[in-house]
Amino acid sequence: MRQKVTLKQLAIELDLSISTVSKSLKNDPEISQATIDRVCKLAKERKYKPNALAVSLKSNKTRSIGVIIPDILNNFFAKVLLGIEKEANKNNYKIITTISNESFEKEKEYLDMLAYNGVDGFILAVSQETQTKGEFEHFNEILKDEIPIVMFDRVADDVYCDKVIVDDKKGAGDAVDKLIQADCENIGVVSSIQKLSVGKERLEGVEKRMKSYDKETKILKLKKNKDYEIQIAEFIKENKFDGIIGLDETAAVSAVNAASILGYKIPKDLMVIGFTNGVLSKHSYPKLTTVSQHAKKIGATAAKILIDKLELRAERYLPQTKVIKTSIVSRGTTKN
Amino acid sequence: MRQKVTLKQLAIELDLSISTVSKSLKNDPEISQATIDRVCKLAKERKYKPNALAVSLKSNKTRSIGVIIPDILNNFFAKVLLGIEKEANKNNYKIITTISNESFEKEKEYLDMLAYNGVDGFILAVSQETQTKGEFEHFNEILKDEIPIVMFDRVADDVYCDKVIVDDKKGAGDAVDKLIQADCENIGVVSSIQKLSVGKERLEGVEKRMKSYDKETKILKLKKNKDYEIQIAEFIKENKFDGIIGLDETAAVSAVNAASILGYKIPKDLMVIGFTNGVLSKHSYPKLTTVSQHAKKIGATAAKILIDKLELRAERYLPQTKVIKTSIVSRGTTKN
DNA sequence: GTGAAAGCGCTAACAC
DNA sequence: GTGTTAGCGCTTTCAC
After folding, report:
1. Who contacts B229 (Cβ-Cβ below 8 Å, separation ≥6)?
2. E-assigned strands of chain B?
3. Within 10 A of B86 (CB to CB), how many other CB atoms are there?
4. What is the pLDDT of residue A1?
């Protein structure tokens, strides 16, 4: 612990009472200007800073936000975290970061641990296992204790709290449009996130738009235990696709590489469009066209909503769901 | 704040004093077994948990670690963070994560903020700007206040604290060996991290080993404002390299893509070896051979050292520098 | 205008 | 064995 200068110390040095010092520092009109000036002067000299712990204990507010990320190695989540951190810092909040590693148990444990450690609120994306299980009671427990939660990206519909999501369906539709407009005739879909809510949303979005063009959607659900590129190469060859939509960044990049395996030229023989505008997309060859979800903005928005609520700047208690618009970042894997 | 059940409440319900309850919960031998049992039973029923804030205020320990990461979008740092978080959690510590974004000011500000918020210790990698400036007084200030710091990867030699580093020089030498053994004649180096201590270390390592083979080292320092792949392609073409060492993951992957631009076949016409075994390396085409720094282990080790010190498990106060060994992960961009 | 006192929830030295 | 008390550093009500 740093802090050695306390109110008490200042009080002694100034021959004042602790409460007078405390009030002076707050410019309480009860106190004479002369005293205020004396106190502030010394406080500045001594570099007095109130002990955060004591303030927290007293006020029951810690100015900290508990963050639970399913997978920090996923560039999307790393970006969201960046957004959260920036916005939190701007508002003088700190974030306590935990990583659920897609595990239901971990998520529950961290939720508890953080609540117990007095975070003022939560920002989280639901873990894969939790989504599969469909068990959300642990979130409701927290909400019952009046600790607000903001979910982002992977949300639980059954939990009544603030949410920040992406219009994945529309984004997926836009991806279809993009390929069709570039004269793709035969479009395939590859995904390694079938089990996630966002994976399903995107697939639905693609299917719906494809239908509007009178096309069926063929999808390859990647198996974890086998090389993605090989699986995709086979899929492309069998179906003679000239366009691929990858529902997640890994799948999309693997599709680009699969083309190389097959000796296809991109975008001449095959076009690819992916999701998530992360590092992978920027460093594939050719560079990948993607549906960007604006991860940083998602994080910043989530933080803003939470902090607004904490500071009661927000209107009463009605949870809102904010939708962040996607946009297509055109790069080398598509024509036009 | 969750916690509603307090010692006081239990005491009232059991018609005991607060201190008796407190002691019972600690199995104090002063207290009769009967009382202990009664207390523990009720505590369990009521799901009593001590208020972390109060304990912290009292003990001057928060069981939290301040972490400062220069760039969370860098897969290496994300992995380190994962390692830190896991180890911390195992020991019942939490981490407060901040991101300096390579800025000296931010770093200083966060250091202060975290110290002021009572973290028990720090784990951090020095920001690029700080390294360039060579100003490390802010770290010494913290150490003076007896808050331990563990630096990892990007460390400040002038600061007397624990460090976890990578044997970058040796790793770089190994990379040279690997290429030479695969019959490369003409090896070039590309880097986008010239300014970082690790970038210099790696370069030195390469140069030294090259010299032992009687070879000069040609290096391309990538300019931020121009496409890496183009810069590298020119570099390769001019010098007719048959081997490239990328001193960081981005540079290495860009080298692989540059080969594609030039129409070279990898590894037949050109071999590439990079640093940092991250997602980029796993998703390039062909997949990249890299010198792995075992980022997760670095993080875990740093956390272990810090926690040992905090719990006084470690022998007195002599700061140690732990070196994590690199190893080469062979993939498709090298032969053999 | 200033100060005393209580209290946030906990611990621990010291009574009884 | 159990309880009283003081104190961690701060805020805030209420006296003076």
Report:
1. A285, B254, B257, B258, B261
2. 64-69, 94-99, 121-124, 149-152, 162-166, 187-191, 218-221, 243-246, 271-275, 289-292, 321-324, 327-329
3. 16
4. 46
Whole-angstrom CA distances from B193 to A82, B276, B325 are 22, 13, 21
Using a CB-CB cut-off of 8 Å, the residues of chain B touching A2 are 115-116, 118, 142, 145, 147
pLDDT at B322: 97
Residue A315 is predicted with a pLDDT of 56
Q: Are A6 and A51 in contact (CB under 8 A)?
A: yes
CA of A126 to C1' of C13 (A): 48
B1-50 topology per CATH: 434 Repressor (Amino-terminal Domain) (1.10.260)
A82, A38 contact by CB (below 8 A): no
Structural domain boundaries of chain B? Answer: 1-50, 168-293
Of B308, B304, B272, B309, the C-alpha closest to B291 is B272
Tokens 């997978």, residue located: A71
Instruction: Say how far A13 CA is from C1 C1', in Å.
Output: 19
> How many residues does this entry show for chain A?
336
Min Cα distance B4 → chain A (Å) is 9
Residue B2: alpha-carbon gap to chain centroid: 33
The answer to whether some atom of strand C lies closer than 7 Å to the beta carbon of B91 is no
Q: What is the pLDDT of residue B318?
A: 85
Q: Is the distance from CB of B20 to CB of B11 less than 8 angstroms?
A: yes
Closest approach of chain A CAs to the CA of B211, in angstroms?
32
Share of chain A above pLDDT 90, in %: 93
| DSSP one-letter code for B288 | P
Residue with minimal CA–C1' distance to C7 is A58
DSSP state of A226: S
Q: Do B40 and B20 contact (CB within 8 A), yes or no?
A: no
The rounded distance, in Å, linking the Cα atoms of A307 and B58 is: 29
The reply to whether residue B53 touches residue A62, judged by beta carbons under 8 angstroms, is yes
What are B234-266's pLDDT values in tens digits?
999 999 999 999 999 999 999 999 999 999 999
Dump pLDDT digits (tens) for A89-141: 999 999 999 999 999 999 999 999 999 999 999 999 999 999 999 999 999 99
Residue A4 pLDDT > 90, yes or no? Answer: no
Are B1-50 and B168-293 the same fold in CATH? no
Strand nucleotide closest to residue B5 (CA to C1')? C9
Q: Does B81 touch chain A (CB under 8 A)?
A: yes
The encoded tokens of residue A218 equal 């063929």
Q: Cα distance from B80 to chain A (closest Cα, Å)?
A: 10
pTM: 0.93
d(CA B258, CA B253): 9
Architecture of domain B168-293: 3-Layer(aba) Sandwich (3.40)
Q: Which residues of chain B have pLDDT under 50?
A: 1-2
pLDDT value at residue A336: 76
